[in-house]
Amino acid sequence: MERSGRVARSVLLATLLLIPGGVARGQEDTLAYANTPSQLLPYSRFQLPYLFFFDEPLTHYGPGRDKPAPADVTEVRIGFLGPVAGGRDARLGTRMLQGATLAVEEANASGGYRGVPFALVVRNDTGLWGASANELVALHDEGVWGTLGSIDGANTHIMLRIALKIDMPMVVSGDTDPTLTETSIPWMVRVSGDDRQASYALALYVVEQRGHERVAVLRVNNRYGRVGTGEFKDAMRRLRSPVVLEMRYSVGDTVFTEQLERIRHARADAVLLWGDPEEVGLIVRQARAMRMEQPLYGGDRLVSREFLEIAGEAAEGVVATYLYNPTLDDRVLQDFNRRYAERFAEEAETFAAHAYDGMTVLIEAIRRAGLNRVRIRDELYALETHRGVTGTIPFDARLDDLGPIWMVEIRGGEFHYFPTLLEER
C-alpha cells in the first residue's frame, strides 16, 4: 500500500506539475525558465515540479548532412520574409529589412561567402492567414539557404511548421510571441527577447517598485494582445495582485470611452495598455482628457516615434519595456547606430537592430557550415552566445534570446532607459 501510494503521488505530480525549465547555456545551476524570478515560477509556493521541459537543445535526426554543396555558385541567397508592403506592420517590416540589408552589404564588403556575394531575396508577409507558408516555399524554390522573418505571431508559427517540412533554417528577430520557441521544431533561432520576459519585468516593476494593487489591462483583441498580456496576468497572479479587469478593443478603433469608463469604475490604480502606437496613442490622450490620472504602462511597441506623435503631451510618464538599450555607451552598438543612420537617414530601433543581429547570425552559420541547410541548422543550434549590436545574446536550450529587458519612461518627450528589477538582481 505504501509503495502504491508513492506511485499515485508521483503520477499526480507528473500530471499537474509539468512546466518549462530551459536555462541559458552555461547556467545549468538554475532551472529558471526564460529568466523567471523565483516568485514568478509556476507552483513555486506549493511544490517543486516533477518534470521540466525545454532544458535541452532539440536535435534534428533527419537526413541531409551528406548532401554536397552545389558547384559554380555565383551568389549565396538568403531569404527575408516580413511585412514590407501593405498593412500596418509594413513600417516595422521595412525597418527590419533595412537592418538585414545592412548586414548583408557589410558581409559582402568583408568577402561574402568564400569570395561569392550574398544576395537577399525578399518576400512580403501580407499578414493573411497561411500566406506566409506559400512565401516560404517560394523562397525555398528560389534556392535560399536560410530565412530571416517574421513579425506576426500566427504567421511565424505557420512558417516554422513549413520550415520543418522543407529543411529551412530560420532566424526570427521581430516576433515576440513567447510560445514560438516551444513547438519542439528544431529549425528556428530567435535573437530578441519575448513578451514573457517583458511581462515579468513589468509585473515586478508595477507591484514591487511602484506598489500597485489594482491593475487593469486594456489590450488589442488579436493574438499579439492575447498572448502578450496573458503572461502579464499570470505574473500578477503569482505576485498576489491579480488583474482586476481586462478590456479589449479592435485594430482601427478610435474611440475608447466605454473601456476607459469601465476601468475607472473598477478603481484601478494603474493600467497596462497593450497594442500598436496608433490605438494606444489615442487611448492615452483620451484617458488624460477624461482626467484619469492612473500611471500607464505598455509593451515595447510604444517606444516609437509614432506613439510620441499620436499621444503628444499625454505620453508624459508612460512606462514601457524595450528589448535593448540603444543609448548604451557601447562601441559596437554606437558604431552600428552611426552606420545605419548614414545608410538609411534615420535612427535605428528594435526591429532594425535585432534584424541586423539575426542576419549576422545566419550569415556566420552559413560561412561555418557551407551550403547545406541541415548543417547550417546545426551551426545555429550550437550557438551559446552571440555578440551583437544589441549586446551579448545568451541563448537558452530553446535557442531563445535571454538578453536583458529594459524599462523606458517618457519624460519631456524623450525616452529614458533604466534597468529592470530582473537585472538589478
Descriptive account of the structure:
By secondary structure, this protein is an alpha/beta fold. The chain has helices at residues 2-16, 90-109, 131-141, 153-166, 195-209, 223-238, 257-265, 277-289, 305-311, 331-344, 350-369, 373-381, 421-424; strands at residues 18-20, 51-53, 76-82, 118-124, 147-148, 170-172, 188-190, 215-220, 245-249, 270-274, 296-298, 319-322, 385-388, 391-394, 406-411, 414-419. A hairpin with a 2-residue loop joins β15 and β16. α5 (195-209) crosses α6 (223-238). The protein is globular and about 70 Å long.
Structure characteristics:
13 helices; alpha/beta
Quick structural gist:
The protein is α/β, with parallel strands linked by helices and 425 residues long.
**Rg for CA atoms:** 22 Å
Overall average residue pLDDT? 90
Largest sheet: 7 strands, mixed
Strand content: 15-25%
Number of helices: 13
Helix amount, in percent? 25-40%
Q: Reading side by side through the largest sheet, how are the strands ordered?
A: 9-8-10-11-12-15-16
Distance, first to last CA = 46 Å
The number of E-state strands comes to 16
Following the backbone from N to C, one meets helices and strands in this order, namely HEEEHEHEHEEHEHEHEHEHEHHHEEEEH
Q: Based on helices, strands and strand pairing, what is the structural class?
A: alpha/beta
Low-confidence stretches: 1-19, 26-30
Shape: globular
List the helices and strands and how they pair.
Elements: H1 2-16, E1 18-20, E2 51-53, E3 76-82, H2 90-109, E4 118-124, H3 131-141, E5 147-148, H4 153-166, E6 170-172, E7 188-190, H5 195-209, E8 215-220, H6 223-238, E9 245-249, H7 257-265, E10 270-274, H8 277-289, E11 296-298, H9 305-311, E12 319-322, H10 331-344, H11 350-369, H12 373-381, E13 385-388, E14 391-394, E15 406-411, E16 414-419, H13 421-424
Parallel strand pairs: 1-2, 3-4, 3-5, 5-6, 6-7, 8-9, 8-10, 10-11, 11-12
Antiparallel strand pairs: 12-15, 13-14, 15-16
